[in-house]
Each structure stands twice: as structure tokens, then as C-alpha cells.
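Hi W., the adenosine monophosphate complex you wanted:
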Amino acid sequence: MIICKNIKSLQEKIDSYRLKKHKISFVPTMGSLHKGHLSLVKKAKGKNKIVIVSIFVNSTQFGANEDFKNYPRNTDKDIKLLKSLSVDIVFAPYEHEILKYRTPKLKLSRFSIERILCGKSRPQYFPGVGNIIIKFFDIIKPNYAYFGEKDYQQYYFIKLLTAKLKFNTKIISCKTIRDNFGIALSSRNLYLNNNEKKVALNIIKILRRTKRELSNQWKPKEIIYKNKKILLGKGVKKIDYFELRSETLKKNVKKNGRSRLFIAAFIGSTRLIDNLKVN
Ligand code: AMP
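Structure:
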């Protein structure tokens, strides 16, 4: 496994693989890897495929009062894990090199979905993610890129962005990996103490309960309103949003249309997100 810290050495390596007709699979991460990330890496592997995993905590997607400084960083452990999965290249770039990298594609077209769900309370989030993903795609030119359904809105945003900017990259979604209790794995779960972990469990419980109730009775507004109250009664400090949306993130969802429940909630000071496919 090769560890590249600068763009030039990465591109030289990629060129040598392309000459041998390899395809490039790319898994962007912010490190502090867990089984969720590793499931993406496993899916990215395949015959004639070179797997590149980036580790980069993207400062531009964090708001001023968010956890950029405290975001967990475990690069040595991450590298060991990636090595055990026979990843080909880890790209752990210097921040200044990425921030100053320019591409014409950076004239980022804006999408209305940047302002809903996570984008409403974190307006810097999607412009920040888009800005860095465009640079990474421009540098790496991956054939495939893998994103978790745990961050469904992000996956869908990147899919739109890739199509609009005509990147030749296929965006592939990967199932949410959960712990034995059902909590979606997240680097931010490291912030939770034991009591908060018990509270966090109620997020998936309420999503599953809401889904069940919707299958008995299609009254999304009433059912979500009631379950929001139940969740707040279980020690969740604040619910940022709890909404039913179509798989293209539209508000109006027909009974048999494809849809998901989306939630963001604060457990203490930790903001967790999750979503569940309904139909
Ligand atoms: P992050 O390091 O949080 O930026 O995540 C990197 C990638 O891993 C994103 O595509 C996430 O959606 C994905 N990911 C994070 N947690 C999970 C999970 N529990 N299951 C599946 N994918 C995940």
C-alpha cells in the first residue's frame, strides 16, 4: 500500500495504473475509520480495480461553532486497517495543497437540496463538501466513487453534482452499517458516553417504529409529529429535523412512492443523523 501526501505523486501513481488498463475506485473519507467506511472499501475492490482511499478532514464543511478542531483523528490506526484490506493507495493530502488547488469545474452550480435537511442548519456543509469532492474528482478522475447511504443527502448531492459537471465517475451507494443494537456507525459516536449511547439507540428505534406505523396507516404528518414527541421524551435533547422525503428528496411522497425517513438529533452536544428506507 502506498501513502501519498501530495497531488503530484498521487497522479504519477494513478497514471502508471491507467497505463496497465486498471480502473480507479475512490472512497473519500475523513478518517477515524470504522466498519461503515470499511464496507465501502470492500465494495470498491474488484478485478482490475485500484482502490484509493482519501483521509482528509475537510475544514470547509464545518461551521464556525462545529467540531472541526475536535473531530477524531486516528491516521495511524486507519492506515493499519486499510493495509489489512489491501487498499492500493491512501491519499492523505496536505491541507494547503488541496485548498489552493483550482479547477474550472469549481464554478459550482448550486442545488436546492443544499438548503434542506442537513443544509438548513448547516448551510456551509454542502458547498464545503462539493468544493472538496470536485477537487478530488478532478485530481483522481475515478471511474467509480463510493458513498454511504448513512449520509443519503450527501450521496444524492454528489450524484447530482457529478452529472452536472460531467465527471466520468459512476457514483455507487453503499448500505448503512449499524452496530449490534442498530445504531448507525459514525466517527462522531466516539463522542458519546455510555448513557448517551443508550439514548442514541432510540433514533433507529423511532425510525423503525415510524416506518411500521406508516405501513399500517399513511398519515405521515401525524405519525411523525407523535414520534418526535416520543423521541424527545427519551432523553434526546433536540431534533433538528425528522421528515419523510422521496428518494430524490422531494417533500411530497405518495403512499407507494419510493421514500425515506430522515432524522438529525442532538444527544447531549453530539449531532447524529440517520435515515431509513420506507418504500
Ligand atoms: P466520513 O468519514 O464521515 O466523511 O464518511 C466517509 C464515507 O463513509 C461517506 O460516504 C459516508 O456516508 C460513509 N459512511 C459513514 N458511516 C457509514 C456507515 N455507518 N455505513 C455506511 N457508510 C458509512
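The mean pLDDT is 97.

W.
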